[in-house]
Amino acid sequence: MKIQLIRLLAAFIAGGIVMILHEFPKALLYNKFNPNQDPKKKRNIYKLHHYIDPIGILLCITNQAGFSKPYMYRIKDRKTNFCLGITGMASLLFTFLTSLLVLRFVLGINSGLNYSRTLGNAQLILQFVLVYIALISLSMFMVNLFPVSTFDMGLCIAGKSPSKYFTIIKNDYFIKVMLILVIMFQFITTFSTLILTSLLG
Asked: Would you say which domain of life the source belongs to (predicted)?
């Protein structure tokens, strides 16, 4: 029971961290591309809790695959769209690789993702948080490959082909339903876990 509670807490913490690390770099880049916007709006990007999506965090806890709440961009040019999409994907990959390196070379976690029963609660939570950060960031990268209009792939498509972007907007509901089904049936989680354990082996 104790381990299950620690896992839930760790997944919640990890999900929030990954969401912030995913969205905040994009918001910073957006501010850089739009230096003349309202100063109050520019400061809004530092309200980090805005990047945590309630449904996304719930999916992170239950399925280790969720999505963050994107900053409300007003993008007029294709270059900015594309750069933000690439930045989002890059930040997720960077988060995954960093956590993977820490797990393997600092904590010595193996492919079994086993925990030590001799660890204290704080150390155990930290270990689980790092495992979940790796797993959730990789899963969120895969989630963002879905062409949802506000996701990274959607931004990349908007940057390269506005006509195709309007097409995915028309099919946004269908794409989101498919995404939720893929998450709920744990296809993404299974694939992410397989990749993570293979790299830790």
From this structure: Bacteria
